[in-house]
Amino acid sequence: MNDGDRAEPVALGGYAGMWVPGAVCAHLAAALTLVLANQRDRAKPADLIAVRDAAQQAAVGYHREWHRIVLACATATTQLASVDPQPQAAKQSPTEITTTTAADLTGLSRQRWRQLAGQGRIPARRDSGGRWLLDKAAVLRYAKETKG
Fold first, then answer.
1. Which residues of the chain have pLDDT under 50?
2. 3-class DSSP state for residue 110?
3. Do residue 93 and residue 73 come from a single domain?
């Protein structure tokens, strides 16, 4: 049973009660209202009226709780999304450079820097966007060693 089908207690006349899924209470109340409306000239059973009224109250409580949970989830999602307004892919420390920057600084191609990073020959990591971020000092050291 998922949260949308969570059972809510509904009192049934003189009995201890019955359990009805919260999402169903409004439908039960509407159905019982139709049954009672078709009783026209006959006396309406008190137990039936009590169950309908209890189902209506349970439906209101269920929907109020459901809306509270949805609002809490929406607020939490918004807060989580706004905690870090700068995308992770755009973040790099001052000691890290992209393969494009490494290529511009050294004259080696971006492809070569990706290859060196992938082989573990240059300290590097991938950001959440999949871009390589290279250790700037290691890039400059490697370029100096290979040119000299």
1. 1-3, 5-6, 8, 11-15, 78-90
2. helix
3. no
Rounded CA-CA distance 116/120 in Å is 6
| Residues 71, 12 share a domain | yes
Give the per-residue pLDDT at 42: 76
122-145: b or e for each residue (b if 16 or more CB lie within 10 Å)? bebeebeeeebbbbbebbeebbee
Q: How many CB atoms lie within 10 A of CB 28?
A: 19
Q: pTM for the full model?
A: 0.40
Return the residue matching tokens 């919260």. Answer: 22
H or E element, residue 103: helix 99-106
CA 130 to chain centre: 23
Token code pair at residue 13:
């006349």
Residue with tokens 């300290």: 123
Q: DSSP readout, 46-97? A: HHHHHHHHHHHHHHHHHHHHHHHHHHHHHHHHHHHHHH--S-GGG---TTEE
Residue 58's domain spans which residues?
3-83
